[in-house]
Design brief:
alpha/beta, 14 strands, 381 residues, disordered N terminus
Length: 381
């Protein structure tokens, strides 16, 4: 279609050919309306209907003309995933399993707190990385999620929680910390971040949208340029030898490459910018006194907050959670070194919704699970 095409010449198309509007950021939406010979301001109107009012039926968008609604019905759609399952933890955490295609499902988690509500969303079906302490990483990888499949997690959560426009929002923060490595999917992750911050959509501030990465350095450098949201780094080890084992992407982007990229990120952007350093506490693996001292030296003068995460076990893992004494001692050393430290309270572990436990349903193209089973079988013989 082109900009001069009239309403009468827009053909009926099949559902698979229709353009999906759910995952479009403002620029993409404006370009879409121009392509069907409509004014750019229609983009804001439709984004409000979709994201603020949770409307997916064009017939319900009553401030659009009948002719425009009919046009949209012919050429566009707002796809939303099916909720396969919902689980509610004793602490109020909610986990949804969302079907994204006939073979794959992903998990999304809402964590309510006294003064905030955080939605943890997924960016891939499975994970392309293989961090040894993470359940998602052990499940293999199928594909990147598309724009609409990522933002749909926010859309579905808002609907399920009964959120309404102009009322106090229940979801105040969104973190890309679910299944997958967001910075290996920037084509789809960045537009979604822009939708989350758009005043015609969810209107979240840059401080309330956080992208977490295991250390994809080239994409870290793009964050400030393209979305300038908050950054969390899954560090988990204070030296290359240990990090190569826990976070294998470190072999490609070792600490001497990663750390300068974090300093580049905090230079400029929104005021008082810092990095959240995620550090899972593994018993007798990375929780010793020498590790804490190495971490103080590594972080140096980087503006950051260290988030110590008690390990959350999953089936067939050999790792164990650090003792409370080890965690407290580790924290004390970091604080004595001048670092701002918090210990994350485990939430949703009774429904496998805690950090590192998300699994979903993955049709694994990497055959990672199969190889692991075969290797284990050979080891036993």
């Amino acid at each position: 279609m082109n900009q001069t095409q009239s309403n009468a010449t827009i053909p009926n198309v099949t559902s698979s050919e229709k353009i999906d509007l759910l995952g479009m950021d403002r620029q993409a939406m404006e370009e879409f309306f121009a392509s069907i010979d409509e004014k750019p301001f229609r983009a804001g109107q439709v984004m409000k209907w979709i994201h603020q009012f949770g409307v997916s039926d064009f017939e319900e968008m009553t401030n659009l003309s009948k002719a425009l609604r009919e046009k949209l019905i012919r050429v566009a759609q707002v796809r939303t995933p099916k909720i396969v399952a919902e689980q509610v933890s004793d602490d109020g955490t909610i986990k949804w399993l969302l079907e994204v295609d006939n073979h794959n499902s992903v998990e999304t988690v809402f964590i309510p707190e006294k003064n905030r509500g955080t939605l943890c969303i997924s960016s891939q079906v499975g994970c392309a990385l293989e961090c040894s302490f993470c359940s998602t990483g052990q499940q293999g990888f199928n594909r990147n999620l598309e724009n609409w499949e990522i933002i749909a997690q926010m859309w579905v959560a808002n609907k399920a929680l009964g959120c309404k426009p102009k009322e106090e929002r229940r979801i105040s923060n969104v973190v890309f910390m679910g299944m997958g490595e967001p910075l290996l999917n920037v084509t789809h992750t960045f537009p979604v971040a822009r939708i989350l911050m758009d005043d015609f959509a969810y209107g979240l501030s840059k401080r309330r949208v956080t992208i977490s990465t295991a250390g994809v350095v080239p994409a870290i450098d793009k964050i400030k340029e393209e979305v300038d949201v908050s950054l969390a780094i899954s560090l988990h080890a204070p030296n290359n030898a240990l990090r190569d084992i826990l976070v294998p992407i470190n072999e490609k982007y070792p600490l001497e490459v990663l750390m300068p990229s974090l300093h580049r990120y905090v230079e400029g952007g929104h005021s008082k910018k810092h990095v959240t350093v995620e550090y899972v506490m593994l018993d007798q693996i990375n929780d010793r006194v020498e590790h804490a001292k190495q971490l103080v030296k590594l972080l140096g003068d980087l503006p950051c907050k260290v988030n110590l995460i008690p390990f959350n076990p999953f089936p067939n893992t050999d790792y164990k959670r650090s003792s409370n004494n080890a965690i407290h001692k580790f924290r004390a050393i970091l604080e004595e070194g001048g670092l701002n430290v918090t210990v994350r309270k485990t939430r949703g572990d009774d429904i496998d919704a805690a950090c590192g436990q998300l699994a979903g349903k993955v049709s694994d193209r990497t055959k990672r699970t199969q190889h692991r089973i075969e290797f284990a079988g050979k080891s036993l013989n």
